Amino acid sequence: MSETQKREAARAALDEVRPGMRLGLGTGSTARHFVELLAEKVAAGLECLCVPTSEATAEQARGLDIPLTDLDSIDHLDLTVDGADEIGPGLALIKGAGGALLREKIVADASTRMVVIADGSKLVDTLGRFPLPIEVNRFGLGATRRAIARIMEAHGAEGGLALRRRAAGEPFVTDGGHLILDASFGRISSPEAVSRALLDIPGVVQHGLFLAVCKRAYVAGADGVKTVDP
Ligand code: 5RP
């Protein structure tokens, strides 16, 4: 997607922001545009208080003088705006390409409303073409990996399970100090069942299926931005 389209999706979501709101700030290249646009509003006098979903977003927001807080200091958020890797039927999502899925899910859950900003290529009929990120504890990685592989097999996964690595080859470590396994399902016919099964594995910290979380998607394309509701 072009940066222009990402920015237009972000700008559309900015219309939901009202003075005094407590906002969750997503992670990723599209969310970065939202943070930049929000910063312009803050500089022009908008009052808001924000919780970032990653250290990267926190750093960006701090650099732009956006007031930050955390979920220990406030009891809820009004609105969270985040990106997505896949947007399926009913606005079921796959998230986590940026490795921020745990904080993203905690922040989304603490929000009255969560919306995503994306381009049309993220819309799918069935989730799963994009490898599902699964955040796992470092301890017992082998056991966790085997348990996830069994679930993938039970759900007809077409691909494998890969430990996410950085370009230099070392394992990717999340802001929470965990690892990420990317599970290539190909298609996920029963997202709720896969979600439950994964969360039953002790070493799984969280996964990137966001089900019944997202209330609206702002999807940018060549013809402008359209809204998609569940
Ligand atoms: C990070 C995420 C991102 O929101 C998702 O990967 C979308 O990123 P981008 O806007 O760069 O395509 O889930 O963990």
Describe this structure in words.
The mean pLDDT is 97. The chain has two domains: 3-121 and 211-222, Rossmann fold, CATH 3.40.50; 132-208, ACT domain (Alpha-Beta Plaits). With 230 residues, it is an alpha/beta fold. The protein has helices at 3-14, 29-43, 55-63, 101-109, 141-154, 191-199, and strands at residues 22-25, 49-52, 77-82, 86-87, 93-94, 111-119, 132-136, 161-163, 179-183, 204-207, 209-210, 216-221, 224-228. A six-stranded mixed beta sheet has the order 2-1-3-6-12-13, with helices on both faces. A four-stranded antiparallel beta sheet has the order 8-9-7-10, covered by helices on one side. Strands 4-5-11 form a three-stranded antiparallel beta sheet, with no helix packed on it. The protein is built from six helices and 13 strands. Ribulose-5-phosphate (5RP) is lined by residues 26-31, 82-85, 95-101, 104.
Compact summary:
Keywords: Isomerase. The protein has about 230 residues and is of the alpha/beta class.
Order of helices and strands: HEHEHEEEHEEHEEHEEEE
Largest sheet: 6 strands, mixed
- What CATH architecture label of the largest domain applies? 3-Layer(aba) Sandwich
- Class derived from helix and strand content: alpha/beta
Radius of gyration: 17 Å
Low-confidence stretches: none
Q: How much helicity do the residues have?
A: 25-40%
- The coarse silhouette is globular
Oligomeric status of the shown chains?
single chain
CATH topology type of the largest domain: Rossmann fold
The amount of beta strand, in percent, is 15-25%
Q: Mind telling me the CATH class of the largest domain?
A: Alpha Beta
Number of separate strands: 13
- Terminal-residue CA separation: 23 Å
Mean pLDDT: 97
Number of helices: 6
